[in-house]
Amino acid sequence: MHRKIEIIVNNSELTAGTRGASLGPGAIMTAARKANSPYFGLYPLHPLPDLNHFLDRENETEFAKNIIPYKQVFESVATKTQSVIEKGSFPIILAGDHGSAAGTIAGIKAAFPNKRLGVIWIDAHGDLHSPYTTPSGNMHGMPLSLSLGNDNLGYQRNTPSEQTIQIWNELKFKYTNASKVNPSDLIFIGVRDTEHEEDQLIAENNITNHTVEAIRKDGAPAIVTQTLKQLEPCDIIYVSFDVDSMDPEITSFGTGTPVGNGIFPEEAEEILTLLAKNPKTVCIEFVEVNPCLDNKINVMAETAFSLLEKVSAALNS
């Protein structure tokens, strides 16, 4: 199935807890050029406005750090994603931090307002916090809470400011009058580092998590088969790939929040390429490469680029 690929580049690291993820998309491009690959000359490229200068200002919102400028990032990602899809193209998004994904999901729903969206979240983390539950205030831990429209108030630990709540609620229902994703249509792959509040939300909503151990036992193709069977009621699927889903000892520590015992790059390749071949898949996103933290000199970006090439080939197979 041949797809017309267009690449959206979002350098934002406003929602990350460590600095350097904004350099991730550029590091992936550097990896391509180092390999003498013309990849980034093959497809239309859409760089989004860079708002990282807001990191040089004092943060005003303790429990949703940088939510004021993040609102612009969210809307920029959503608008461009919607535009690319409505042209009949397949958006591949290269983003700094994982906060980008909430905008991506909003853009997909704006393009397909009447379609049921399945989300496959390949990550070490659940990213299910809200301003009411976050232990850090970093919003790259909140994109799924935004998309599910669930603040998890039963486990509230924080009292966000009125300004935070106003912007949060606006983004939660941007482009929709209800949640963008049903919990039954969210599937985790490789998630292994969550907090108590997230665990409760996962348990209460019976959210599926295909663990690294399950991937190792059953094999990546079987996990993909199970995932797609669960998402059969969905009309469309979005795949979000955080590089920290992979084992840092095997790849590198070039990501903001590495977690041990992750999936192997070969397993990631199998999973991503099989999902790319699925006709329901309408968007794939790569996030959280951080070359400033790479202990192997850009190996994480090189690994991400290799996966990006394989995904693109699968989309055109």
UniProtKB/TrEMBL annotation:
InterPro entries in the cross-refs: Arginase (IPR014033), Ureohydrolase (IPR006035), Ureohydrolase_dom_sf (IPR023696)
Its cofactor is: Mn(2+)
Pathway assigned to this chain's UniProt record: Nitrogen metabolism; urea cycle; L-ornithine and urea from L-arginine: step 1/1
EC code(s) of this entry: 3.5.3.1
The record's SUPFAM superfamilies line, in alphabetical order, gives: Arginase/deacetylase (SSF52768)
Top-level EC class: hydrolase
Task: One GO cellular component term, please give it.
Answer: cytosol
Under the GO molecular function aspect, what terms does this record hold?
A: arginase activity; manganese ion binding
On the tree of life, the source organism's domain of life is: Bacteria
Q: Name one GO biological process term.
A: arginine metabolic process
The alphabetized UniProt keywords are: Arginine metabolism, Hydrolase, Manganese, Metal-binding
**One short Pfam family name for this protein?**
Arginase
The entry's family comment says: Belongs to the arginase family.
What protein name applies here? Arginase
> What organism does the UniProt record list as the source?
Fluviicola taffensis (strain DSM 16823 / NCIMB 13979 / RW262)
